[in-house]
Fold this protein.
Amino acid sequence: MPNEVPENIIKPVHYQVEIITWLDECIKLIEAKLSDKYTDLVMNEDALSIYFYIKQYRDFWGRNMTHEILDQVNEHFSDREKWFSFSELARQKDIITNSWWQSFMSQMNKCFMLDNVVDGWGYRTFDKYHYRWFLDDFGHDSLCLMLDGWGDSYSLLLRVQPKEYDSMAITKLLQTPKYAPIISAFERIDKVAADEWVQIAELGNFKFGDVMDWHFDKDRIVWYAYHQTDSLSNKS
């Protein structure tokens, strides 16, 4: 409907990489189970059937992804010079992202150490990915809000140093009416592997009106960290 729908309003979003990564993790789990010499033989037979089914399904997505990638390459790099320019930039990817994170760190430090200092609250930068907000009286290893490239995601975390503070006692306090507002401040609470350091995790949950909203890893969020620092820092 070219007369009714504006041009370029629809953007295709593909999840082949995410699906293949998930299937690879499933395969690894089953392989670990099959290698357990104490596993029941019947369970082994069931797991073996599932194992080969998942491997076939993974290969199916792999073939689809290859065709999809080739279609995108043909669309964007039919011109030789565009491909050469992309190849050169790809070799410089780590340098570019490091520079963008360094810029983000400088602007974050200015924002929270100079422009927005709050009495009683401390702020500390640990590296280009890692920032903490905490109560001055208790220090940065007490219960603190942390913006961090944790695992594959760039995340908001509520964290405590278990060697300095009783993380189990803090978990119980967070369930009481007095401290419940801390939990309600998180838009989303994601399930993560048991971690005595992390009380609450909100993984990659950033919104910029983009098709990738709520699913930002470090490579995706770095563009916004550089180009929309104010917007990202306000979300913390």
Remarks:
- The chain has two domains: 16-80, 93-235.
- The beta strands are 121-125, 131-135, 144-148, 155-159, 198-203.
- The first strand starts at residue 121 and ends at 125.
- The mean pLDDT is 80.
